[in-house]
Amino acid sequence: MTNDDTSENLLTIRNLYTYFYTYLGVVKALNGVNLEVKKGETVGLTGETGCGKSVTALSIMRLISEAGKVVSGEIIFKGVDLLKLSEEEMRRIRGKEISMVFQEPMSSLNPVFRIGDQLSAPIMLHQGMDRKEAMEKAIEMLRLCKIADAEKIVRSYPHELSGGMRQRVMIAMALSCNPALLIADEPTSFLDVTVQAQVLKLMNELKERMGTSMIMISHDLGVIAQLCNRVAVMYAGDIVEVGDVRPIFKEPTHPYTKGLLRALPGILTRRLFSIKGTIPELIDPPPGCRFSPRCKHSAEICSRQKPQLVEVGEGHRVSCFLYHKESTGED
Questions:
Q1: pLDDT in tens, 280-295
Q2: Considering the entire predicted model, what is its pTM?
Q3: What DSSP string runs through 45-75?
Q4: What CA–CA distance (Å, rounded) separates 14 from 1?
């Protein structure tokens, strides 16, 4: 169950189902996702590869590929359901109200246009500036992103920049129209460790300075712990646990979250822990709780009924029958 008080929420996702229609069958990628993002906060979205993190982000942006479709649900942004907007209305929101930083900047930047042209285009579109004003704003944003010699960079092509520099350009582009919500999809996964730290620090500083809310998508729990106020843990298209970062990392409640945290490598750990079994095939996912085939606490009800998110602490919710047996009548 989601929190119905949306007054403090910039974004509220309710019962979101997104499917992909392939020649092998229907991939049920999102299985009723519920999530809130409050104004000014950073929410982490974490889980194994293929759990639905990026699909959630693309559903918010309404950038799902032609093979995919948001089947049902609501995505309420500033009181408006994005799924009910026309494509033209959605275009006015993308880049201006909601921006996204993708995993690999080289696939997001057009290789045949100079950096300045690509940076200035959304500024001219959304802020009504002429080319000269937009280019000045682009240079200002590059400086804000701690890029030296910004005047030279705007005349450069993407292939002339390093990976870390290209990602800074993407951050500058995403923040150029001062969006209310920034979605960062694994923004440092292709960067080396030292550059990762610089980029993450930059994003956090800019987010605080501009008052932007952020969804940080990452499989790296260290990144989530460092940057996020709250975290939502995903498994096979479901959010299984959500709450403040510190309580969840200190005392996780869902069996999957516990396994995920135990699997973190430690300096003194001799043997790595692994969760038994494999992620289910989403063309034919298991009924009920999708984690039940791998869960040592699985009961009969888990294989026939999907558990809802229930409160287990202040702002801490978990989707597991271990925590709401009263509502199911189970002993």
A1: 999 999 999 999 999 9
A2: 0.90
A3: EE-STTSSHHHHHHHHHT---TTEEEEEEEE
A4: 9
**Domains, the chain, ordered by start:** 9-97+179-328 (3.40.50.300)
Do the Cβ atoms of 12 and 83 come closer than 8 Å?
no
Question: What distance separates the 2 farthest-apart alpha carbons in the chain?
Answer: 70
Integer Cα distance of 153 and 161 in angstroms: 8
Which of 294, 265, 215, 254 lies closest to 46 in space, CA to CA?
215
Q: Look at the chain and count its residues.
A: 331
Work out the mean pLDDT of the chain and round it to a whole number.
90
Per-residue model confidence as pLDDT tens digits over 78-129: 999 999 999 999 999 998 999 999 877 777 899 999 999 999 999 998 988 9
Phi, psi (degrees; rounded to nearest 5) at 60: -60, -45
**Cα-only R_g, the chain:** 21
